[in-house]
Amino acid sequence: MTIPDLGALLRSPEQPPPAPVPAETAAPAVPAAPATVAVTEVPAVPGVPAAESVPTAPAVLGVPATPTAPAVPATPTTGDAAGLPAATPSGGFSPEAARKDVPILHRTVNGHPLVWLDNGATTQKPRQVIEAVSAYYSAANSNIHRGAHTMAREATELYEAGRAAVAQLLGAPSPDTIMFVRGTTEAINLVAQSWGRRHLGPGDEILVPVLEHHSNIVPWQLLADETRARVVPVPLTPDGAIDQDAYADLLSARTQLVVVSQASNVLGTVPPVREMAALAHRYDAKVLVDGAQAVAHMPVDVQDLGADFYAFSGHKLFAPTGIGALFATPEAMAAMRPWQGGGNMIDSVSFERTTFAPMPHMMEAGTGHISGVVGLLAAIDWLRGFDKEAVAAYERALMSYAQTALATVPGVEVIGSAAERIAVLTFTMAGHDPASVANWLDKDGIAVRAGHHCAQPALAHYGLESAARASLALYNTSGEVDQLVASLRRLEQAGPGAGAAEG
């Protein structure tokens, strides 16, 4: 069956119908009912062919494209900071095209046009995502998987279309290797509890680079306390890269798991994950990759990376909060036990015997974040409208422009200078604490983040407890970088204490 035109349900009788949706954009068939599995055994992951094509969110929802947001003054894109050349958009991509789709970028803050440079914390949402979530709640809201009525089937098809879209985004071999979670943090905790508790014991080691986010440190510490395993930090080089010689020396027969971010949220470092995974696999260790900061900035192929587990959060990918995904290889899935019990993750329940659903449903207890999956599907569809390589090239050029521009501000020091990095610029400013810097910038409508960024060991590597951070995305421009630099120059001229919050 195909999903009906839900947009027709939302339109008034006077509105003309949209153009018909091509048949090839229909959602893939819903997976067959799960097979019965005894509690004492973990099912093998059924082999399901990878989706050849994934339906676009507007087609799935039947919502016609709406006119672009009202015209607003464009953010200047001509570099003027110290006479620097502008970051030039790559062929096949324009940041202005992306900006037109994101309503919040057209608001003002404290009387100034918003300059959103806090993308490392969360990205802003295009109208296509907002409309998809609204259309779902307006015309297709239902629980999934178990209902026999029309709307239950529609919601289920949307949910599973989202799973197929995530599999395609990550280069996964099958939608059945994708589990929905609240975000990266829950995904990592899921692996710790469902795989780690079963496989780690006294003396086993988990290698964790110093640059990791707290969500990729604390769950392993908790697990190590419980299993008497050891968390082994992997040091950094002075430029903020993972020390690869130290990493190779730390690997041993005791290593059961290596965890690593594909991109650091505080230093921007992009480690050589593929090489690190290949080396870990020589010791039969599993590799978990935190992709929270990577998926919005670079093409991802989990099979090429050699990831046994890969986690990301939707809200850092222009999708709603509270939704994310975890990829696991079929081999890793077969070695996992249920983490949470309840509805949806079972096949049958009695007081004598309970049997579980196959993966990935066995890891999705209770009602999932259905509207979040719809929004994630719409976000992935939106991103597919841009050339991935062109976006990555543009962001690299913008980062280079921003690095050069910030270097012209007296007292500003950017930390981390690894050769491979994403557009995350964490910095300090002499005479001003990071919170004061962020407060000053906010008065000019510029949003940056200040604090420890949930990466205290990485900051401690530089002798810091906190710093300010400007993190860029595909809709940012060199003109916005110029505004950041101009505001910081005014702060430097105003002197120490100028940015302190009042009251």
TrEMBL record:
GO terms for biological process, alphabetical: cysteine metabolic process
Transmembrane segments: none
Enzyme Commission (EC) number: 2.8.1.7
Compositionally biased spans, kind Low complexity: 71-89
Catalytic activity, reaction form: (sulfur carrier)-H + L-cysteine = (sulfur carrier)-SH + L-alanine
Aminotransferase class V domain location: 115-484
Pfam family, one: Aminotran_5
Residue segments, region Disordered: 1-27, 71-97
UniProt name for this protein: cysteine desulfurase
GO molecular function terms noted in the UniProt entry: cysteine desulfurase activity; pyridoxal phosphate binding
Entry's family note: Belongs to the class-V pyridoxal-phosphate-dependent aminotransferase family. Csd subfamily.
Keyword field: Pyridoxal phosphate, Transferase
CDD domains hit by this protein: SufS_like
Keyword flag S-adenosyl-L-methionine: no
The protein's enzyme class: transferase
